């Protein structure tokens, strides 16, 4: 059985991994004033788009996920021909409309695929399953990597589905953003209350950085640390402890809103990499996608992994 995987462009994974595993991207379109770019996870295009005046107004960005019709057309024009079963893994429905659009499209896709496949000489059934990752950024990446491992191991679609849905419930993403004013302006535009105005003002004045946590679609601050480097080190060291305690999937995903060389110079990074190597945990490092950057600002760091343990220490 040919199993396909499709993700939205807010999933932070390296481009070479996505290409090697033949993972299809659902682009998110970003508009800032008159400037428009479809996020297809191109680092150079993203940084060019966020330069100059456009970048200064990034917090005003409007993001538009693939519509129901666009998802429907992508499947019927390509995916129902290339695969027999497709897993569509999306950013949490509490933060993006792509999940609900994909679910709505799935109904018409399953009604319309038969003549399309028959025209290519294939009369076998086609199935798809939309999986809510219940997470954001590098957190979305964790079940995607697991899906590729299960596919390579020859697991059946029902077992893959059950594993992914369980993993999503236990996947945790953590983020440290360097610019609280930007983050506050952006989440205010989105109607979010993760960082209050007072917290942003005090945090900026005192150089206090919150560590934000996402699990099961809910986001909240779990720590406040003075200085971005210190907050990043605390997050890296915390992740290393979770790795030593045992993860549900041998995967840690990192993403950064800038050149990865900058992330690799942050304190605690080397210790985390050494811990992962010792525990045989694979690390995926990715430049943050455009839709993520306009939501949290340049220079943000995110870490994703799956663990039965909760809490930040």
Brief sketch in words of this structure:
This is DegV family protein with EDD domain. This protein is of the alpha/beta class and 313 residues long.
Description:
- With 313 residues, the protein is α/β, with parallel strands linked by helices.
- The protein folds into two domains: 3-164, Rossmann fold (3-Layer(aba) Sandwich); 171-306, 2-Layer Sandwich (Hypothetical Protein Tm841, Chain: A,domain 3).
- It is built from 13 helices and 13 strands.
- It has helices spanning 15-20, 43-49, 52-56, 68-82, 98-119, 138-152, 157-169, 180-190, 197-206, 228-245, 260-264, 269-278, 290-296; strands at residues 3-8, 24-26, 28-32, 35-39, 62-65, 85-90, 127-132, 171-176, 208-215, 218-226, 251-256, 282-287, 301-306.
- A six-stranded mixed sheet has the order 10-9-8-13-11-12, sandwiched between helices.
- α4 (68-82) packs across α5 (98-119) and α8 (180-190) packs antiparallel against α9.
- The longest helix is centred in the middle third of the chain and has 22 residues, at 98-119.
- The protein is globular, with a radius of gyration of 19 Å.
Q: What does the secondary structure layout of this molecule look like, with pairings?
A:
Elements: E1 3-8, H1 15-20, E2 24-26, E3 28-32, E4 35-39, H2 43-49, H3 52-56, E5 62-65, H4 68-82, E6 85-90, H5 98-119, E7 127-132, H6 138-152, H7 157-169, E8 171-176, H8 180-190, H9 197-206, E9 208-215, E10 218-226, H10 228-245, E11 251-256, H11 260-264, H12 269-278, E12 282-287, H13 290-296, E13 301-306
Parallel strand pairs: 1-2, 1-6, 6-7, 11-12
Antiparallel strand pairs: 3-4, 3-5, 8-9, 8-13, 9-10, 11-13
Helix pairs in contact: 4-5, 6-7, 8-9, 10-12
Pfam families: DegV
Organism: Thermomonas haemolytica
GO molecular function, one term: lipid binding
């Amino acid at each position: 059985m040919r199993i396909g995987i499709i993700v939205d462009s807010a999933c932070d994974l390296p481009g070479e991994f996505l290409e090697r595993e033949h993972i299809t991207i659902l682009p998110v379109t970003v508009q800032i004033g008159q400037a428009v770019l479809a996020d297809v996870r191109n680092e150079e295009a993203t940084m060019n788009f966020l330069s100059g005046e456009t970048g200064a107004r990034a917090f005003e960005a409007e993001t538009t996920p693939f519509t129901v019709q666009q998802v429907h057309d992508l499947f019927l024009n390509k995916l129902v021909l290339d695969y027999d079963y497709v897993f569509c893994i999306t950013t949490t429905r509490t933060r993006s409309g792509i999940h609900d659009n994909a679910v709505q499209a799935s109904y018409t896709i399953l009604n319309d695929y038969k003549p399309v496949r028959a025209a290519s000489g294939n009369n076998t059934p086609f199935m798809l399953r939309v999986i809510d990752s219940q997470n954001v950024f590098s957190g979305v990446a964790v079940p995607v990597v697991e899906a590729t491992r299960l596919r390579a191991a020859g697991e059946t679609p029902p077992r893959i589905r059950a594993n992914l849905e369980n993993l999503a419930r236990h996947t945790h993403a953590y983020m440290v953003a360097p610019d609280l004013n930007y983050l506050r302006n952006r989440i205010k535009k989105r109607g979010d209350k993760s960082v209050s105005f007072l917290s942003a003002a005090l945090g900026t004045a005192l150089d206090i950085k919150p560590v934000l946590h996402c699990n099961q679609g809910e986001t909240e601050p779990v720590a406040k640390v003075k200085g971005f480097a210190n907050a990043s080190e605390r997050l890296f060291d915390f992740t290393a402890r979770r790795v030593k305690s045992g993860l549900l999937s041998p995967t840690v995903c990192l993403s950064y809103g800038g050149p990865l060389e900058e992330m690799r110079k942050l304190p605690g990074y080397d210790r985390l990499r050494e811990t992962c190597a010792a525990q045989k945990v694979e690390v995926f490092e990715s430049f943050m996608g455009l839709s993520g950057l306009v939501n949290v600002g340049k220079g943000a760091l995110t870490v994703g992994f799956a663990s039965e343990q909760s809490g930040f220490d």
